[in-house]
Prior knowledge:
mainly alpha, 5 helices, flat, membrane, transmembrane helix, transmembrane, ATP synthase protein I
Amino acid sequence: MTEVEAKTLPADPRWKVAHLPFLTAVSFALLLCAASVGYLSGGSAAALGAGLGVLIVTVSYTMSTLVVAWADTVRPALLMPLALLTYVLKYSVLGVVLVYGLSTAWTGKDALGWGIVAGVVVWTGVQAWWFTVVRRPK
Length: 138
């Protein structure tokens, strides 16, 4: 690492992942709520689908956060290529899963979609709230 790169690294890079425990707890609560709503509205298949949708978003967003934080800490020049590679891999896998899911007769696929939507909205909202209100990076 050159002297210039060493000077640009933050003194305490933990702020990049400080929100993960709270977001994981919120996501777990959302998973329980989504599964409950799914069960009440469509039975066990809808409960599984809704919960799985929230879980997919949670794992996906957590993986992105960890890859970006790691790359920025180790070598900031790796940030863009690794972030783009992560997104391409994530959305390729998600696309294959969704295309396969649409071609099946599984009754929980609508709830899966709603679980994904709920997960994205809640995770994005809570993360935005965290960084603007709770923990403003210096």
